[in-house]
Amino acid sequence: MSEWWSYRPADFLLFSPRTYWRLFELHNAQWWPLHGLALALMSAALAWWWRSGSARALWLVLGAGWAFGGWAFHLQRYAGINWAAPWLAAGFFAQALLLLALAGCSAPPAARGDPLA
């Protein structure tokens, strides 16, 4: 029982830092063409918000981005090395649903005095 004093926090890591950063490298390499599309969609949503005053396009793009991140990274890649990744993905999906619900509100947030309408 005396050997438990010899443990360090690094002994409890599920994976090495090199493995963690390799996940990001592989994820970005797999989805590379989508980066430009995501940037274009977000730029268009920001331009729409700037011109019309309605943030619905922003909420839609952000909700889709959160759902994609939960599925493509947390469920497809991170779940292989971390047992908590499906729970993180569930949090991403919950936030995506909230953002999409905000986009589908019948009364725009500007009517309630929200500056991000």
Outline of the structure:
With about 120 residues, the protein is mainly alpha-helical.
Content-based structural category: mainly alpha
Distance between the terminal alpha carbons, to the nearest Å? 61 Å
- Record field, number of beta strands: 0
Low-confidence stretches: none
Mean pLDDT: 85
What is the CA-based Rg, rounded?
Answer: 20 Å
Strand content: under 5%
Order of helices and strands: HHHH
User: Roughly how much helix do the residues carry, as a percent range?
Assistant: 55-70%
Largest sheet: none
Number of helices: 4
Shape: elongated
Oligomer state equals: single chain
Task: Explain how this protein is built.
The protein is mostly helical. 63% of the residues lie in helices and 0% in strands. The chain is built from 4 helices and no strands. It has helices spanning 17-30, 32-52, 56-75, 85-103. Helix 2 runs antiparallel to helix 3 (56-75) and helix 3 packs antiparallel against helix 4 (85-103). It is elongated.
SSE order and pairing:
Elements: H1 17-30, H2 32-52, H3 56-75, H4 85-103
Helix pairs in contact: 2-3, 3-4
List keywords for this structure.
mainly alpha
